[in-house]
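Dear colleagues,

As part of the handover before I leave the project, I'm documenting each prediction I ran so the next person doesn't have to rerun anything. This entry is a single chain, and its sequence is reproduced below.
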Amino acid sequence: MDYFLSEDIRAIRELCSEIAEKHIRPVREELDRENRFPHEIMKVLADSDLFRIYIPTEYEGLGLGTLSLCVAAEELSKVCAGVATTYAANALGAMPILLSGSDDQKKRFLPGLASGSNLAAFGLTEPDAGSDAGGLRTRAIRDGDSYVLNGTKQWITNGGEAKVYTIIALTDPDRGARGASAFIVEDGTPGFSYGKKEDKMGIRASATRELVFEDCRIPVENLIGREGTGFMVAMKTLDNSRPGVAAQAVGIAQGALEEALVYASQRKQFGQRIDSFQGIQFMLADMATQVEAARALTYSVARMIDGGVKKFEKEAAMAKVFASDVAMKVTTDAVQIFGGYGYMKEYPVEKMMRDAKITQIYEGTNQIQRNVIASALIRETASREK
């Protein structure tokens, strides 16, 4: 479908497609097998100014907004979701600064993230606080002109590779989620270290590590916003980032569909190409319809955000849950179309199926997204009835 993308965003899509084909496709299997971080590809993306697209112009970005980031993430995900996750997680880590940081914080940190010379990461999840983000235990205690952090964050994308971390920690544990605050912590700060690199099922080109804070002292000026607003900062961040996860899921699904179409046109059984069989045709038709519907919803939500709509929590959750479910369904069907070959690592669809699964889990599980959607619907209905 034609989504009437601007000339700038069409150029971003073409550039990302070119980079994916030239630099990512030849090494994606190797990156996946070796669980290797794609340093060289991140440099290519940085040199191509792709880290600038969502950063405002006053901080050395291009100011092209959420839709541009979604299109870039989708194109990269068609070929390798692990590489795309590394790229998109930089935006996730930058988002608290973009949305809630002071002008001084933006001037200090955003230009380096825009250039790609620094990567960012977002630290919310903990060993005992996943879907229950209000169950945080990491503490930040004010001590003069510093805060002292103690605790751990788990499953942090870009952990150990990023230079800038936005961390949610409790400054007033007695207030629960209302006692959380957001901080910027830089790599190399004394008391800040990393756990082991996780050996994941999918998106293996991305780095996932535990963050460990042991009497980690950071300056007061690294507090984002005010004390007690950290949970709000985190929720706003995730609302803004979920269309990016949806776009990643759309890209994975599109990549799997394209692989299935090519394979079905070449594979013969019973003396015929398998795409001549109605059973395969129906699968392909459903896959294509589902991908296009997910893309339409994702782009619509991104345009809502870029258009300045204030409340889009429900719609962002809808895009994430629908697109990620589509990605899992389409990649599973692609493996089925490939048959026994689809189960083998020499063919890309088994990787796509493994990569798709995480989109149903991270940045809010799909069960939590359905809670978000239902709660919003109930509030809207109650408001209309008053």
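The chain has a mean pLDDT of 97. The chain has eleven helices and ten strands.

All the best with the project,
I.
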